[in-house]
Amino acid sequence: MVQSFSAVSFQVVVLFILIGVGFILTKCNFLTKECVNGLVKVILYSVTPCVIIESFHREFDPDLLKQLGIAVSASFLSHLLNIVLAHLLVREKDRARRCVYQFGIVFTNCGYMALPLQNALLGSDGVFFGAAYIAVYNLINWTYGIVLLDNEKAKISFSKIFINPGIIGVCIGLFFFLTPFSLPPVLLTPVKLLTALNTPLPMMVIGFYLAGITSFALLKDKSFLVAMILRLIVAPLCTFGVLYLLKIRGPMFVSMVIAAASPVGANTVMFSSMFNKDAEVAGTFVAVSTLFSIVTMPLIVAFAVFLA
Predict the structure, then answer these.
(1) Could you give the CA distance from residue 9 to residue 25 in angstroms, rounded to a whole number?
(2) Residues 73, 78, 79, CA angle at the centre, nearest 5°?
């Protein structure tokens, strides 16, 4: 257990050093909002798909395909647990804030925060199962997430459900996994080089959000604290417990727990702004949960590694 905690802590500390670089660059005015918006698009539209494609770029294995199906089911179950917790336990009276808290509890930073840690601890297998979580995340994000935040119109964009970088990356990756085809070296090499950017760039973006915290007054707000505890402790432990009872073990178990234990997803800020919810509270929710995850993630993930 101690060894597992040390290994996870090492990787999380490395990630937070990179976050610190983003924080310092922001304070020095080298990293601006416009710059970060550009970086987010680079990560979203090129880096993340390449990470997923590379993780699926392997020889077909029927047993691995079966495990992928289990991982998808486990990912749906994890999100369902989050939704139930968010709606049962968040009691914020202000509707806009309540929606932000519920959204943040359901949707973790399973791309920016989880993938680098999954890759560091588990290698390509961790990213393989992490990609399943991301695919489910995208499906639920563009359905339930839209209905939750855009509660007046509740319009669902079916094109965005199936045509987005995460899903496209999974589809391309599955093509190479399920067929005898593979990328030629001249294409695979750029994919690997872009994949290498998946750790530093997202962490620097998170550092930008942390640098944007102007007040910690929300830490005195009961609803905010409840939402934080639900996201960082209760929700991941529920996923942990249910998957463990279902006898899911090994890299899949650890990968799912890493995704579930991640802090509030950065999409919470973008979607809150898009649907005129409290974007400032959303930004604080993302930043503060990321800050406190340096303590909660190593504990939960190390326990998962120990039991896997």
Answers:
(1) 24
(2) 100
pTM for the model stands at: 0.85
Conformation bin of residue 190: beta by default, left when phi > 0, alpha when psi is -120 to 50: alpha
**φ, ψ (nearest 5 deg) of residue 264:** -60, 135
> Residue 147's domain spans which residues?
2-307
Full DSSP string of 42-61: HIIIIIHHHHHHHHH-S---
Q: Identify the CA nearest to 112 among candidates 204, 9, 31, 21.
A: 204
| H or E element in which residue 71 lies | helix 62-89
Report the CATH number that the domain containing residue 110 is assigned in CATH.
Answer: 1.20.1530.20
Q: How many structural domains comprise the chain?
A: 1
Give 83-140 as a DSSP string.
HHHHHHH---SSHHHHHHHHHHHHSB-TTTTHHHHHHHHHTHHHHHHHHHHHHHHHHH
- How far is residue 94's CA from residue 115's CA, in Å, rounded to a whole number? 34
Residues 89-103 have pLDDT tens digits of: 998 888 889 999 999
